[in-house]
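Per reviewer request, we include the raw input and output of the structure prediction for the construct analysed in the revised manuscript.
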Amino acid sequence: MDEDLPRPKGDAASALVKEALDSYSQDELATRIALLEAEIARVRAHRDKASAHRLAAEALFRSGSQ
């Protein structure tokens, strides 16, 4: 599967968007926000690592073909 393509609509993030939040307390919402922010940081770190890996590979193949 191509990493640049959007994920199918049935993924976990799409399910979270559809969830009603009315039953959550203020504390539960704060906890949920903290967990989501931590997940965002984890995903960003992975994206940045993957991007750096890709750039390094492209540079290696570019220099090797000259």
